Structures are given as structure tokens and as C-alpha cells.
């Protein structure tokens, strides 16, 4: 029976323990984890009683009886969604992230995650890593990359449009690269100007440091805005720089209600579009696009140990990560 080290969130911090799984059945695959990203969403679960991590990359070690295309030694990634029913309207449309029977991080399979030495997942929900892309580069793409690419790609962003990216963290620094490579004009909104040089190097055309400003100014109004901050922004500040007919994609995981300047919504015909990670179809396209255009996260590596995870989480929480932590399992 497969058994592997995992790292859980608990009330008292990170705990190292073991998970044991039954013999592989159906299209299950046993993976040896080689790298895991640390996403902002993991911070919400650090005191939950569950194994953490949902930006995993690993090597196929064993295959269940009904697997069809993977073979031992293949490199694959996985993200937020573990399985879905496969037969509902959403699954049939390729929107399996909205399947009523979806199994997702934080809600299902709490005994395993990517902060681990191993994992057992369905072959149907694994993503082959393109040749030439390293495991540590591929890891943050499994959630962070997938989420921002989805918001751009699923809703048909055009190269002639101005795309705003608010928040230059794990998601935001990838979103700048994707939007720039899609040919858009990219306007970055960031708390301070500390990240300006890097944002411009990643492909931004304009950078606005928002802190202390009562009014924002941009050269051309935004047709789309991806909100990649870890908390909801001040929408009053943002609405004046949106173009008529603009779409806002609030990606931040935050508690409480969404409160938006109501008359701006009407008078400018604004659309608010929720978006959650990516379907498998879009995730595969994202990986191919990232490989072709050399879109890579800027990484800080940490050992995947209790101390390493705690250090990485503390740094992310303080806002000091540049720009995505990747945890590397240590040999036992
Ligand atoms: N919808 C989805 O499917 C999905 C998927 C993944 C993650 N998420 C969520 O997306 C958000 C970003 O994730 P991430 O991994 O990129 O996090 P991150 O690396 O912590 O980046 C968040 C960025 O937000 C800004 N920020 C920090 N503290 C803030 C505050 N108190 N108020 C407003 N802005 C703040 C900072 O950017 P500046 O310094 O530039 O201001 C920071 O770099 C999180 O809420 C995460 O849970 C959603
Ligand atoms: Zn995530
Ligand atoms: Zn379904």
C-alpha cells in the first residue's frame, strides 16, 4: 500500500506525518512529489486540519489498472481540482471546475496535498509537463498560472485591449507575463513602487503605485482588470480608470461580501466576472503557451520541511516573497 510523508496545517503550526493509501484502483496514479508551489490560498488553510499544497509536480511511480496514457517516469503536475463527475452539464461543457460533484483542495482529499513526498491522484486530472520546463518552474503554474491564464483566455482577451493587473504577487507576476505575451497593453497597479522595475521587466507597459492616492490616472483606460491582491481592493478608486464595457475579474480569496460602486456599474456597463482556477483544457493550453513563450515564475526555493514551510509561509504573509515560493522535498 502506498505510504508517504505529508505536511499538515494544524492549530499549532505545520506538522509532519504519514498518509497511507489503499492499493491503486481505476485510473489512480502514485506520484513522487518533486516540487510544490506555495499559493496565497494555502495561507487560509494553515490552521485547518488538512495536508497543504495544491501546486504539485511529480514523477509517475505506479499506475492503476485503468490508466491509459501515462507511463512510469513521466513528469506531471496537478492543481486545485482532483476529480469531477464527468457526466453533468458543466463537465460536458469542459467547465468541470463548476461540477456539483467536484473534489477540490480544502474540501476533499484532506489527507494529501503537494506539501508531501507522494500523492495518489486520478490520471484524468494530471497535466504532463512540457519538455524543457523544469519541475520547479512548472509548480507555480498549476494554480497561480492556471488561474490568471484562465481569466485572460476563457473570456477571450484581445491583443488590442488594455489589461490591468492589480497586485504583483504569485498570481500577479505571472499575469503580467501572460497578458504581455498575448499582445495586450499591460498596466500594473501595485501598493508601492518597490516592484516597479521587475514588473516592467516582466512586460508591463505602465506601472501605478496606488498607496496614498485619492485618484488613479492611467494613459489609456482598462478594458479588463485582473485583481490578484490577497484582499479586496478599494473599488471606488478603481472604477474611474475602467473603460466603458470593462470587465473586472476579482480573483482574491476573501471573506465577507462584494461591495461595488453601483452607479458606476450601470453608467459604464461594467461586468464583474468571477473566475476559479482553470478547467483541464485551459490548464493544458496554459502550459503549452508558457513553454512556447518562456513564461516562468520568479522563485524563492525552500526545503520542504516543517521549518522550511513555516519560513516560506511567514515570508508570504509579510508580503516579502519575490514572487513565488517553491518547496523542494528533502530525501528521507
Ligand atoms: N480565484 C482563484 O481561482 C484563485 C486561485 C489562486 C489564488 N487565489 C487568491 O488570489 C490571491 C493572490 O494569491 P497569490 O498567491 O498571488 O498571493 P500573494 O503572492 O500573497 O500576492 C498578493 C499580492 O497582493 C498585494 N497585497 C498584499 N497584502 C495586501 C492587502 N492587505 N491588501 C491588498 N493587497 C495586498 C501584494 O501586491 P502589491 O505589493 O503589488 O500590492 C501581494 O503581492 C489570494 O487571495 C489567493 O487566495 C484565487
Ligand atoms: Zn492556489
Ligand atoms: Zn460534473
TrEMBL record:
InterPro entries: ADH-like_C (IPR013149), ADH-like_N (IPR013154), CAD-like (IPR047109), ER (IPR020843), GroES-like_sf (IPR011032), NAD(P)-bd_dom_sf (IPR036291). The keyword Metal-binding applies. This is Enoyl reductase (ER) domain-containing protein. Residues 9-327 form the Enoyl reductase (ER) domain. SUPFAM superfamilies: GroES-like, NAD(P)-binding Rossmann-fold domains. CDD domains: CAD1 (cd05283). SMART domains: PKS_ER (SM00829). GO terms for molecular function: metal ion binding; oxidoreductase activity, acting on the CH-OH group of donors, NAD or NADP as acceptor. Its cofactor is Zn(2+). Keywords: Metal-binding, Oxidoreductase, Zinc.
